[in-house]
Specification:
By secondary structure, the protein is of the alpha/beta class. The protein has two domains: about 260 residues, 3-Layer(bba) Sandwich (FAD/NAD(P)-binding domain); about 130 residues, Rossmann fold (3-Layer(aba) Sandwich). The chain is about 30% helix and about 20% strand. The structure holds flavin-adenine dinucleotide. The site of flavin-adenine dinucleotide has 35 residues, from helix 1, strand 2, strand 12 and helix 12.
């Protein structure tokens, strides 16, 4: 017997993608009261350090470190107006970042930073990174570095990918009052092998925090700040940090860890738990399998986990499917292809132009600038500059003319272009 087919879900906007760009777009759309359905896997968010980069290294052939991102963006506009960050005003970029960080603050992960300059903080290998917005749990590390104050970096014995000695050996020449300690966690030994997620969830329990503080206390002589790997809880990391600060009697801060990272899990869970109550109908861990456009302009999408389970009919689609890692773009022998709709991809002439001779060439590689070309309203265009569909928008790392890894602008591009696309869509009355 044939079963009746479920009615399609109707919405004004379908967001394809659940990385930073898709999550931000869904948030902005919900805030404007736009009925929104969203689908996607976790994307690159799980690898994220939790830092919100906006613009930390100059785009183009010279590699300059940027202290004032707003000044840097002015220069970017003069020299590279095709860059996606130049399609959004400074005011819009600020609003976009504030809306996302306020949302994360409400979800238990407050962010902070300077109004007009990048913060500098320690990476897990002991280098210094510039970023625009920093989880509150990491902020005391920015201050400790600025003051070059007496500081203890702690690692956990048996926890891979974070070594206090490694950080010390890189930074000690410029920071003489830095010291390290490697401690054992008795309660973790009872649990078996040490995994960052185990420890983070464990530290949400007060008794475990006490054991951690007891293990650190003997190393505190002449120490003003204490730095730990970013493992201080999943859902209330700032609460865990504050409690440890009180127990140790001095500021405590987290240092980002290598990917995949607890900070990525925090972001993922914050978005997945707090966007649906704001009205986003979400299909996380689902993929869009097919998409076609009706003669009346509406999009019909089939989505599901491994095969189509649900049909969505949408007035507008926002494509935030990422680059190669997110699977928005596919690199093949013949060239780079947009995976879902076969949209035109702006790319180097042929494969031999993808990379420069040297892997670490400071100018970067041409393949990292490939992606969708869009108009001022974030609608994909073809090589003649013609808009592909007036109700199709794109945002995030899938966009052409930007190399977010090299310019330290991953979240900035994702969030700012998502904001630009949603504003354009809302303004168009589509
Ligand atoms: C190792 C690593 C470290 C990073 N560190 C930082 C950092 O320190 N600071 C910073 O600012 N940024 C950082 N980033 C960048 C940031 O996490 C995002 O990658 C970036 O912001 C781009 O996000 P995106 O949403 O455009 O793409 P992605 O995160 O790639 O998301 C793409 C989304 O599209 C979905 N998708 C693809 N195809 C389909 C389909 N057919 N149907 C449904 N969904 C689909 C995917 O499932 C995924 O949800 C880091 C990224 C990585 C990989």
């Amino acid at each position: 017997m044939e079963t009746a087919k479920a009615r399609p879900i109707e919405c004004r906007l379908m967001v394809i993608g659940a990385g930073m760009a898709g999550m931000a777009a869904a948030l902005f759309a919900a805030r404007r009261g736009i009925s929104t359905v969203q689908a996607g896997l976790t994307g690159e968010t799980l690898y994220a350090s939790g830092l919100f980069d906006l613009y930390g290294v100059s785009h183009g052939n010279t590699r300059e470190l940027i202290d004032d991102p707003w000044q840097g963006l002015k220069q970017l506009e003069q020299n590279h107006p095709e860059h996606p960050l130049c399609r959004v005003s400074t005011h819009q970029i600020r609003s976009a970042i504030d809306l996302v960080t306020d949302f994360l603050g409400d979800a238990g992960h407050p962010y902070t930073g300077y109004p007009n300059k990048n913060a500098r903080l320690i990476t897990p290998v002991g280098t210094i990174k510039r970023t625009f917005r920093v989880p509150e749990t990491m902020w005391a590390g920015v201050q400790a570095l600025e003051e070059k104050a007496p500081c203890l970096i702690v690692d956990i014995q048996g926890l891979r990918g974070f070594s206090a000695m490694q950080i010390l050996s890189t930074l000690k020449p410029s920071w003489p009052d830095l010291k390290s300690a490697s401690i054992d966690l008795p309660w973790e030994n009872r649990l078996g092998p040490k995994y960052a997620e185990h420890i983070a969830r464990g530290l949400e329990v007060e008794a475990a925090r006490r054991e951690l503080a007891d293990a650190i206390r003997p190393h505190l002589e002449q120490v003003k700040y204490v730095g730990l790997p970013a493992i201080l809880g999943i859902h209330d990391s700032e609460g865990v940090r504050r409690d440890l600060k009180q127990m140790l009697g001095r500021p405590v801060f987290e240092i980002p860890t290598m990917p995949p990272a607890i900070s990525g899990i925090r972001l993922k869970e914050a978005f997945e738990n707090h966007l649906p109550p704001r009205g986003v109908q979400s299909f996380y861990h689902h993929t869009v399998h097919t998409i076609h456009r009706r003669a009346n302009g509406r999009f019909v999408l089939e989505l599901g986990r491994t095969e189509p389970e649900t049909t969505v009919e949408a007035d507008n689609v926002l494509l935030a499917t990422g680059r190669f890692l997110g699977k928005g773009l596919v690199a093949e022998r013949q060239g780079i292809r947009e995976a879902l709709m076969n949209l035109p991809v702006c790319q180097p002439e042929n494969r031999s132009c993808w990379h420069r001779q040297q892997f670490l060439d400071p100018k970067g590689h041409a393949i990292n600038l490939a992606g969708l070309e869009v108009d001022d309203r974030f609608r994909p265009i073809d090589p003649d500059g013609k808009v592909v569909y007036e109700n199709l928008f794109a945002a995030g790392s899938i966009l052409a003319h930007q190399d977010w890894i090299r310019t330290k602008s991953g979240t900035g591009i994702a969030v700012a272009t998502a904001f630009g696309a949603i504003e354009a869509m809302a303004g168009s009355g589509c």
